[in-house]
Every structure is written in C-alpha cells, then in structure tokens.
Amino acid sequence: MESQTYHGYTVWGHAILQQEDILQPERYGASGTITLAGKLVEASGILACFDTEDEAQRAGLEWARAWIDSHG
After folding, report:
1. Which of 29, 55, 60, 62 is deepest in the core (most CB within 10 A)?
2. Is residue 56 a contact partner of residue 28, using CB atoms and an 8 Å limit?
3. Residues with Cβ < 8 Å from 44, sequence gap 6 or more?
4. Number of domains in the chain
C-alpha cells in the first residue's frame, strides 16, 4: 500500500493479490482509497489486474487523483 497527499486529501494505492490458481503466476488487483482528515471519502473496487504490486499501487493512486480532479 502506498499513500500520497493530493490537494489536501490522502490517496492510497492498493495491490491485492489475485491468485486464482496455485499454478498461475501471481497477479495483483489495483484499487484506490481517498480520505480527508482521516475519514473515508471514496474507495474503488478492483480497477484492473497487473503483474506487479508497484503497477497495481500506481493504478490505484492514479484513479484516486483522477477522482479528486473530477469531483473538486
């Protein structure tokens, strides 16, 4: 999980392990969370799946920043 401050909000990018079959390579679901003053503002579901945790976290952060930009 990675967090940043963006326009006064705290945005979080999450990487959620999505391993459906033990024989398949690990994949990570991306999601994002937005908080303001410690309170939940918005959270996404799974946005997409990625091969690495970093890619998934970045996608979650990008979603959160875009949500703030479109609702601000």
Report:
1. 60
2. yes
3. 31, 32, 33, 60, 63, 64, 67
4. 1
Q: What is the pTM of this model?
A: 0.90
The Cα–Cα gap between 4 and 61 comes to: 8
**Contacts with 2 (C-beta within 8 Å, 6 or more apart), sequence order:** 12, 13, 57, 60, 61
Name the residue range of residue 18's domain: 2-71
Mean pLDDT computed over every residue of the chain: 94
Q: Which of 57, 69, 53, 8 is nearest to 33 (CA)?
A: 57
Which residues in the chain show pLDDT less than 70?
none
Angle (CA) 17 22 25, round 5°: 60
Of 32, 29, 28, the closest CA to residue 2 belongs to 32
> Which CATH number characterizes residue 52's domain?
3.30.160.350
